[in-house]
Amino acid sequence: MRSLEEELEEQGDTQEVLAVQVTHKLPSKKIFIVHGHDNEAKQTVARFVTDIDYKPIILHEQASGGRTVIEKIEANRDVDFAIVLLTPDDHGGKLGEAVQPRARQNVIFELGYFIGFLGRPKVFALTRGTVEVPSDFTGVVYHVLDFAGGWKLELAKEMLNASLQVDWNKVMKRYCRYHEEIEHIKIRVSFRSQLGLINSPQLLRCIFREVRDDAAGACAFEAH
What we know:
Blueprint: H1 4-23, E1 30-34, H2 39-51, E2 55-58, H3 69-75, E3 81-86, E4 90-92, E5 100-102, H4 105-118, E6 123-127, E7 142-144, H5 150-161, H6 168-194, H7 201-214
Parallel strand pairs: 1-2, 1-3, 3-6, 6-7
Antiparallel strand pairs: 4-5
Helix pairs in contact: 5-6, 6-7
């Protein structure tokens, strides 16, 4: 006949196993994208996230249900990773000093929020253009949303480092497709230059837009 102590001990072991099973979280295959007013940067990143089989979570696209912004963030934080876009959408600085381009304050807040919630290894900060970066987030590496698309490789490496599944074939497919489109741009620019059709930055931007449209949205280009 088993003693009460043995039964309690067995129940304790069972509860520990159940606790482990409950706390084990399956990957959601979702990535939260924090952004400011740069819609092109947001769409570029969201498209790449989709291409590598993750679902981009963009806050303003989620149902509000009468909730505040922080309540919406809490309701949609079931993600594996967060990408934070720091773009020069605002200006600020110390009193009496010249103002500097900086990200929107909500972006800075959400950067800190997801560092606290997910941990630094699962937050990828991307900068675009000249923008002031927060000095308080020690250990955060800021990557550049570069025109050549190198940020895609950096993002994939950070996701792997955070123990997420990444299909490198799909990563490289998108990276190589981007550079194929760059060659397409060079050919078109060269052809129009020879015809004397390019004489202003505005026309050059039109060429970039044409190539982007021809690619059916496969890549987003910038021309400054």
